[in-house]
Design goal:
Layout (H helix, E strand, L loop, with lengths): L1 E4 L11 H8 L3 E4 L2 H14 L9 E4 L5 H13 L4 E3 L13 H9 L4 E4 L4 H9 L6 E6 L4 H13 L8 E6 L4 H11 L4 E6 L7 E5 L1 H4 L8 E6 L2
Parallel strand pairs: 1-4, 1-5, 2-3, 2-4, 6-7
Antiparallel strand pairs: 7-10, 8-9, 8-10
Helix pairs in contact: 6-7
Length: 229
């Protein structure tokens, strides 16, 4: 059985008992970054006074090796091994590795389940104060300006009384200023919230129009929420 395990998005205490029990009882854990995970795993297990089973394997599973690792993981599952999939933070498969594996398992009716946990986009939606009855999550935007322009022009064109979702996406601190510059041209009246370091010590939400936010300096992991007025 494959367990898709949600971990905290920053604050260790957001980790659930069920998540850590599942990880500790898994024969194999697939993770994006073994060093980051080792630190998190040891602290989270100690929090619940739990220990991993003997001979547990922790294996790299990231975007660069997902295609190569999939047949190996599928064979392990067919052998009846208990496997957990985790990402750097939050839920695996949501703008993180794991999507292709989950798709294959679903199509071939190989058993898997999800151990729920925090997700950055849902947390940011609430932090922003924007309407949450309709949410549109874009993951990470393309790198090309022309493609970003095309996406937001399309979103602007579908706005109606019945359909006007709050838009959410992830962005790098190295690209956020260029993205905000684009938004200042396409959606100048939109209310924007930039949520950074959520659930961590320096959690911060910056609100304003794109033009007001585009020249600031940003650090850390960013989730952008847009209310298209």
């Amino acid at each position: 059985m494959l367990y898709i395990v949600g971990t905290s998005i920053g604050n260790l205490e957001d980790t659930s008992l069920r998540a850590i029990k599942t990880l500790c009882n898994s024969e194999i854990i697939l993770t994006e970054d073994t060093r980051t995970f080792d630190s998190y795993y040891s602290r989270a297990a100690a929090q619940f006074n739990l220990s991993p089973i003997k001979n547990q394997k922790i294996v790299h599973y990231h975007a660069e090796n997902e295609f190569m690792m999939m047949p190996i993981v599928i064979e392990w599952l067919k052998e009846g091994k208990s496997i957990s999939l985790v990402s750097e933070s939050g839920l695996p498969g949501i703008s993180d590795p794991g999507g292709q594996l989950i798709k294959y398992l679903s199509e071939h009716e190989i058993a898997y389940t999800v151990i729920p946990g925090p997700t950055a986009f849902a947390t940011a939606a609430l932090l922003s104060g924007s309407p949450t009855d309709q949410l549109l999550f874009l993951g990470f935007l393309p790198k090309k300006k022309s493609m970003i322009v095309q996406i937001f022009n399309q979103l602007r064109s579908i706005k109606s009384k019945q359909l006007n979702p709050t838009i959410i996406f992830y962005e790098s601190p190295h690209r956020i200023n260029a993205t905000l510059a684009i938004l200042s041209e396409i959606l100048p009246q939109a209310d924007i919230a930039i949520c950074r370091e959520m659930s961590k010590k320096f959690e911060e939400v910056l609100r304003g129009k794109a033009n007001e936010l585009k020249d600031k300096a940003y650090k850390g992991e960013l989730t952008i929420v847009i209310k298209n007025n």
